[in-house]
Amino acid sequence: MSAENMCAIGRIKKRPDFVAAASGRRFHTERMSVQGRLRSPNEHTENPGLRFGLTVTKKVGHATERNRIKRRLRNAVAQAVSGHENIAIDMVIIGRRTILSAEYNVLVSDIASALRVVSKPKSVNHQRRDP
């Protein structure tokens, strides 16, 4: 991961930001779940563009395995989002154990697909009118 990519991509570190991302769109594969939401322009953050957070629960494995999953995800995120750093979106990736055995290009593809899905604005529910 290059230093310029890490500067352009912010990290989510605080619980309220993780909870806020959970209120947005979701994307699931057998390797990960991704939650994301578009931020409004008036939200003040250190990084006005793309921010992401990683979560890997203790059920997945011991610390060495969880850290390896997070390292693979960080690198895949940096590659998958290149060119999309200006989107004001918060993305949370919940990693699963199958990430350890997945091909790297599959991880990059999953994250790129997730970015397309979670960056769409939520549709407004239209109330149905009865005639």
TrEMBL record:
Keyword annotations: Endonuclease, Hydrolase, Nuclease, RNA-binding, tRNA processing
Molecular-function GO term, any one: ribonuclease P activity
SUPFAM superfamilies according to UniProt: Ribosomal protein S5 domain 2-like
Gene3D superfamilies cross-referenced by the UniProt entry: 3.30.230.10
EC number(s) given by UniProt: 3.1.26.5
Catalysed reactions listed for this entry: Endonucleolytic cleavage of RNA, removing 5'-extranucleotides from tRNA precursor
Quaternary structure and partners: Consists of a catalytic RNA component (M1 or rnpB) and a protein subunit.
Function: RNaseP catalyzes the removal of the 5'-leader sequence from pre-tRNA to produce the mature 5'-terminus. It can also cleave other RNA substrates such as 4.5S RNA. The protein component plays an auxiliary but essential role in vivo by binding to the 5'-leader sequence and broadening the substrate specificity of the ribozyme.
Similarity section: Belongs to the RnpA family.
HAMAP family for this protein: RNase_P
Protein name in the entry: Ribonuclease P protein component
Lineage: Bacteria, Pseudomonadati, Pseudomonadota, Alphaproteobacteria, Hyphomicrobiales
Gene: rnpA
